[in-house]
Amino acid sequence: MSFAQLGTGVSKGIAIGPVHLLYRDELEIPEYVLPEQFIAEEQTRYSAAIILARKQLHDTLEKIPPNTPTDISEFIDTHLLMLSDSALSKAPLEIITKHKCNAEWALKIQRDALVRVFDEMEDPYLRTRRDDVDHVVNSIQRILLNSPVHHSVTPAQEHPHSGHILVTDDLSPADTVLMQHQGIAGFITEGGGPTSHTAILARSLGIPAIVGLHHARERLKDDETIIIDGQEGWILASPDELSLQHYHQKRRQQHLQYIESIRNKDQPAVTKDGKTIHLMANIELPSDIDAVHEIGAQGIGLYRTEFLFMNRASPPGEEEQFATYKGVIDKLNGKMLTIRTIDLGADKQVDGSSQQNAATNPALGLRAIRLCLKEPELFIPQLRAILRASAYGPIRILIPMLSNINELKLAIQIIDEVKADLRQSGIAFDENISIGGMIEVPAAAIRANMFLEHLDFLSIGTNDLIQYTLAIDRIDEEVNYLYDPLNPAVLNLIAMSINAGQLHNKPVAMCGEMAADPRFTHILLGLGLTEFSMHASNLPVIKQVINNSDMSSLAEQTNKIMQCSTYDDFISRLNKFQYNSAV
Ligand code: PEP
Ligand code: MG
Predict the structure, then answer these.
(1) DSSP strands (E only) in 224-305
(2) What is the SS3 assignment for 466?
(3) What is the number of the ligand 1 atom nearest to the C-alpha of 459?
(4) Dist. CA 150–CA 314, nearest whole Å
(5) CA–CA gap between residue 535 and residue 94 (Å, rounded)
(6) How many Å separate Cα 397 from the centre of its chain?
(7) Which atom of ligand 1 is nearest to the CA of 346?
(8) CB of 304 closer than 6 angstroms to any ligand 1 atom
(9) Sheet holding 3-6: strands in order across?
(10) Which residues contact 385 (CB under 8 A, 6 or more apart)?
(11) DSSP code of residue 342
(12) Hey, where are the domains in the chain?
């Protein structure tokens, strides 16, 4: 039966395809045919995964407090025994040889065989041990999936869910990166918010996506056709022929509109009263650069480097990072590249780093610069790589999630030490490289002037600034309704950051999602913002709004709003302003 449902559209575009329902802990297992010469290497990869799985269990065992019921440690002991049993430690090695397949697929074959045996058991207790098999197998699969084969292999078949619309409860940013490789046409999650990194990545990958579609998996069936509109946030399940034709046609129109929108790519963004505004792009992956040129961005205002660290067993070393950053700067043809140092933690997790233990409030925990200062072995190779790449084109360093000046001083000290090392080794880098800080924590916005005594520029990250100011988790859709960029406290913090830049005569940009939303362009211009950075696809519409604006008149009106002493007055003036400047 055909039905429609509404969620929150987070990545525009229409996708049409069969549904693939995905349940938590259900892993997508790739199948590859391996050339003979890689069999031994694959077996080593499998054995290494078993060793790591055992180590993870031993680590957990050590952390169990002494007064914990013994059931827990017995449970882990059972899993350790299973990992040592030849059914899991040896049999998959033979399957790799016999089927010439990758380790993940060999383990899947063995798991299915073991589960069949358990399913046939009479004893209900023994039958439940099947869950233990799944638990242990999943832990090995996760390790294998994070240490993908590096040599080229032939997929045994096209990815089974290529062209499907994935429907699941939630997706991590790491899962989202993999979706493009799997040819997923669009996705729907039951939870999540529009400024989550999963949503940001979907936009970057150009995959239409909807979040917060409650009970979607209960209402949809595997393989049923659906249409999703990632802008409006609705889905149409089991559409009739007429609807299908209509939305295929609409998809073609959207493509033509996009082509039309990039016609003004070489036109600068200048307000009617002659103020030049810098329009930069945010990128998540080096492959985003093509869109940056296509759309005519003036440079990269935010390169989220943490995605380079995901879906792999160990972080990329200095050489790999250098090659990546150099590759990006080479492709930019002299345009500015702002590289943000790794912002891992919170919803952006990688394997094997200490931030995984933080947990209770990860957004308030060991993330971004805090993690980098705690783990210099993560930070220093990145700084060396960025500095080395700065010899090949204009690069700025951007430090995320600063909350106090001492932290900033420490970061600058490390950068200075890295520079001294490079100098001593005769390695070229830009001696005058600019160092900027993200304004994402209210404490930094309130004292932006003090941060600017040590920094060359600021970039306002409204996704986090709003999250921390209003105390609402950006990935929790239950509190999404409170996520308000126009909250007076948020506007005040933005104003303070911009004013601090004017006072120090240093640039202040905005790279959070607020900068990409045309509903907020007028108020931001009114507050004096002159550099916007956003996903490339939003740039044409923002440029259009800017080119039709009068900055001094907006500043006058905005100033009046910000001066209001009562909330009612503030809201009524703001509403009028928003209404008059609606696009
Ligand atoms: C922000 O917080 O606004 C920002 C740009 O950083 P991220 O979205 O990666 O946290
Ligand atoms: Mg942020």
Answers:
(1) 225-229, 234-237, 278-283, 299-304
(2) helix
(3) 5
(4) 13
(5) 48
(6) 19
(7) 10
(8) yes
(9) 3-6, 234-237, 225-229, 14-21, 165-168, 186-189, 209-211, 8-11
(10) 318, 319, 321, 322, 324, 325
(11) P
(12) 3-24+151-257, 36-144, 264-582
H helices present in 284-403, as ranges:
289-295, 318-331, 368-374, 376-389
531 lines ligand 1 (CB under 6 A): no
Active-site residue (options: 20, 197, 522, 535) = 197
253-301 pLDDT per residue, tens: 988 888 888 888 889 999 999 999 999 999 998 889 998 999 999 999 9
Name the superfamily (CATH) of residues 3-24+151-257.
Phosphohistidine domain (3.50.30.10)
Give me the catalytic one of 20, 511, 522, 535: 511
Stretch among 60-69, 115-124, 188-197, 199-208 having the lowest mean pLDDT: 60-69
Which atom number of ligand 1 is nearest to the Cα of residue 306?
9
Task: Please tell me the distance from the alpha carbon of residue 417 to that of residue 267, in angstroms, as a whole number.
Answer: 42
Q: Which residues lie at CB < 5 A from ion ligand 2? A: 440, 461, 464
Q: What is the pLDDT of residue 206?
A: 87
- 458-468: per-residue pLDDT in tens? 999 999 999 99
C-alpha dihedral (549, 457, 290, 540), degrees to nearest 10: -10
CA 288 distance to own-chain centroid: 13
- Taking the C-alpha atoms of residue 338 and residue 396, their distance in angstroms, rounded to an integer, is 5
* Dihedral sign for Cα atoms in the order 389, 390, 392, 395: positive
522 belongs to the catalytic site: no
Query: Does the active-site annotation cover 511?
Result: yes
Whether 340 lines ligand 1, by a CB cut-off of 6 Å, is: no
Q: What's the CATH class of domain 264-582?
A: alpha beta
- Of the given ranges (3-17, 171-185, 315-329), which has the lowest mean pLDDT? 171-185
The DSSP secondary-structure symbol of 35 reads P
- What integer pLDDT is reported at residue 126 of this predicted model? 66
Tell whether ligand 1 has an atom less than 6 A from the beta carbon of residue 462: yes
What pLDDT is attached to residue 530? 98
Amino acid at 356: Q
Is the CB of 473 within 6 Å of ligand 1?
Answer: no
* Residue 368 in tokens: 């971004």
Give the predicted TM-score (pTM) of the model.
0.78
Class of CATH domain 36-144: mainly alpha
Distance separating alpha carbons of residues 370 and 366, to the nearest angstrom: 6
